[in-house]
Records
---
Amino acid sequence: MEYMKGIDGLYIQEETAVTLGKFDGVHRGHQKLLSRILEKKNLKSVMFTINGRKSGFVLTDEEKRFMLEKTGLSYLIDCPFIPSVSGMEAEDFVREILVNRLHAKSIVVGKDFHFGYKRGGDATLLLWLQKKYGFQVEVVEKEQYKGRDISSTYVKEALEAGNMELVNDLLGYRYFISGEVLHGRRIGRTLGMPTTNLVPSTKKLLPPNGVYLSRTRIGEQAYYGVTNIGYKPTIGETFRGVETYLFDFDGDLYGENIDVELWKFKRPEMKFDSVEHLKNQMQADIAFGKEYFFEK
Ligand SMILES: Cc1cc2nc3c(=O)[nH]c(=O)nc-3n(C[C@H](O)[C@H](O)[C@H](O)COP(=O)(O)O)c2cc1C
Ligand SMILES: Nc1ncnc2c1ncn2[C@@H]1O[C@H](COP(=O)(O)OP(=O)(O)OP(=O)(O)O)[C@@H](O)[C@H]1O
């Protein structure tokens, strides 16, 4: 997969099948569009992403790239929402970008897709322009879950509520947090519970602080465990971290990149009056997690 940022110098020689949108989270609805462009074997597949926000993403840019890399997508275009793009009239965008620079022969969008200056363009306009510019448009019905259209907004609502089962159903894969394993204060070790600490990107949208049942991917391996998200109020930390106790793991992970999938919310993070009480609660969390993963 080739990654391209911005539209300066943007040019793809080959003929393409393009899908357009924000694509935060690459949820099940987005995946439907993606599979349509990937089906067109005689065309290169292009995901044209455009997003104006600076933070609060279900997937960070790196995580999105990691996910899309595995799908066989040919090109990922990351276009900032700058005036030279957002100010373009819809048809100008189609002609200048999609036709002249990307050689789009197939365009796939969801039913409610809007683009161009003041969201002036939509799927109907694209259908209208098919003949004039020699491409074919496919307008995809919205993928639903329990009677509601799946959208990034829906995923974010579920995430903010800590409803990981719903988040994961909407995404069609398990929500995860990527990062490098850093050194904690090494108190975990003295508690008999060594943990992996990572500090997520400030752009990453996290569920509420608390303890979650998790599965951590490390290269080709995966380990079940329990993860605490928060500031560790008992010992008082200055940053919001993601800390995981891995079941049945013994080794050194400092410096490794890991992906922590969150499966289920267990309890909110709490401030304990002693480290001993915290330790007892952590042991109870671990016992709960082991029962969930290994005895269900
Ligand atoms: C499963 C689990 C649950 C935790 N729950 C809490 C909590 O409720 N309150 C808290 O202050 N810290 C909590 N922590 C964080 C501990 O304070 C932390 O693991 C310990 O102090 C070691 O930190 P260190 O890795 O920086 O040495 C939890 C950690 C884990 C792994
Ligand atoms: N549930 C869905 N089913 C099919 N297509 C979808 C679905 N959701 C979005 N799309 C399409 O995927 C593309 C990217 O969508 P985009 O990320 O911009 O919106 P969204 O997922 O609805 O998020 P938001 O809630 O931020 O509007 C658009 O073409 C959109 O119409």
Note: The domain at 174-294 is CATH 2.40.30.30 (Elongation Factor Tu (Ef-tu); domain 3).
---
Amino acid sequence: MSIKRIGLLTSGGDAPGMNAAIRAITLKCINAGWDVIGIEAGYNGLFSLSSRPLTHQDVDNIIQRGGTILKTARCQTLKEDNGSELAAQQLDKLAIDALIVIGGDGSFRGATQINKFWPKPIIGIPGTIDNDINGTDQTIGFWTAIETALSCIDKIRDTADAFERIFVVEVMGRDCGFIAMESGIACAAEQIICKEIIENESDFLSKLYSSIQHAVTWQQTQSYVIVVAENALSISAQTLAQNIQSNTGVDTKSAILGYVQRGGAPVAMDRVLATQLGIAAVDALVQGKSGVMIGTLNNTLVEIPLADTGLKNTANQALIKRLKQFNFDLTD
Ligand SMILES: Nc1ncnc2c1ncn2[C@@H]1O[C@H](COP(=O)(O)OP(=O)(O)OP(=O)(O)O)[C@@H](O)[C@H]1O
Ligand SMILES: O=P(O)(O)OC[C@H]1O[C@](O)(CO)[C@@H](O)[C@@H]1O
């Protein structure tokens, strides 16, 4: 089948660098003589047929912008019973010959479903701050989110130090600890808490309280920063802070960094990664590939079946190993 019109959408949480990928895909397709149709607000744009052709001008001066010029969304309709069949019909209405989806593993689950009713090429590009995708070392947006988290935690460290307080800082990641781990290592957090390392929560917390007590009593720690991944514990960051204070007697505050981690100009790493993956996605279409995500493993471009992009247990093992490497907690 000869490709003339590419559909392009961003889906799931926006991630800094998505615009860089949109730019690379658009320019590469235009060079190949293909039209690029930007589908707006993720899969929602398919159902509402909200789309527009993307031109050189549309992708000028966007590489440094956070968010996504195509908008994004979480689309309930696609998950419903006839959702993927309907999506396939909508793609035909738009006369799309091939689809590129920039998003997370959920977006790729959606793409896999659509492919069952729409037997045309679909290529995925990993775009999520969480880095929770199997088959790629990095996702677009991950390093920018870490830089953002890091600059916030460094500021929290200043006030924690001035008051000799303990701080519990919650970072994003959905159910996965990669943002907590990397930002925690980079800000020299005294503790990094991720779901992956907790076998029994109450044992874990008892150990945490005694570890903090030891640090403030014997190491005369001036400030103590705990980076916790969202959803790592059954209690909120605020409750954890209250519990630490009542167990240790040390003034303890909490801060939830939240959506600030999704915004801002992408760091160089994300711009370069997004550009590289965007070009490779179009190359994959030229080569007749379909049903794969383009990722990077050990700095090499790889293709992973979209159906295999859900996080595997090996990611947990890798995270645990890395955390142990960087753990300076002397009581451990
Ligand atoms: N099992 C599924 N079947 C059909 N569509 C799905 C499925 N899972 C997810 N999707 C579609 O993909 C969209 C995005 O998925 P999700 O909300 O999980 O985000 P994501 O792509 O994993 O990105 P992020 O990691 O940034 O949250 C969903 O809103 C839905 O439209
Ligand atoms: O924007 P929403 O739908 O509230 O999603 C928040 C989730 O999206 C992410 O920012 C990206 O997946 C997660 O870290 C977070 O749990």
Note: The chain has two domains: 5-141+266-308, 143-262.
